[in-house]
Predict the 3D structure of the following.
Amino acid sequence: MEDATEQLLALWGKGAERASGLDFASHVKAIAHARFVLRRILRLLDEQAIAGGLQPLQHQALLQIYGAEGPLPVNKVADRLDIAPALASRLVRQLEEKGLVHRARIPDDRRVIAVHASDAGIEVLRKIDASVHVRVDHFQRQLSDEGKLGALATFSFYLGLDSDPRLAILLTAAGRHTHNHR
C-alpha cells in the first residue's frame, strides 16, 4: 500500500484543478506550505539585501538590470519589477548614486535611457548571493521532502506546468526515491 507521501505526490501530479476536486484539504495544505516557503525565502532575500546595503526593491532592480540580456531600458526595469516607471527611475537614480549602475542613452533611440550594472554593482550582488545561499541552505534542511515536493507542485501550478505529464513523472519518481531511502 502507498504511504501518505506517495498518495500526495500522485494527487499533485494530476494538476491543481483535479487535485483540488479530489482532495481539497491536501490541495490547500500544499498551497499554504508553498506560500510559507515563498514568504520565508523572500524574507531571507530581503534581510540579506539590507545587510548588503540595499533596500529590497533596490536589490530587485539591480538583479533585473544585471540579469538582462543587455542594457535594460528604465521602462523595462519598471515592467520587470511590476512598479510605476517613475519609481523605477527613482530606483535607478539611487543605484547610480551608489555607483552600482550606469545609465546611457540607447544609440538607436536617444529618448530611451538604458541601464547596466557596474563592476561594483555586480560585486554587491555576489556578496548578497553568497549570504543568501548560506541562509537558504539552512532553511532547506528544515523542510521535509513532502514539504519540498508540495511547494514544488504548487509553484508548478503558478507557472502553468501542474498538468504537464513530465511533472507527474518527476513527482512519482521523487516519491519512489523518498520511499526507498527511509
User: Anything to note?
Assistant: The chain has nine helices and three strands. The chain has a mean pLDDT of 84. Residues 24-51 form the longest helix (28 residues). The two ends are 16 Å apart (CA to CA).
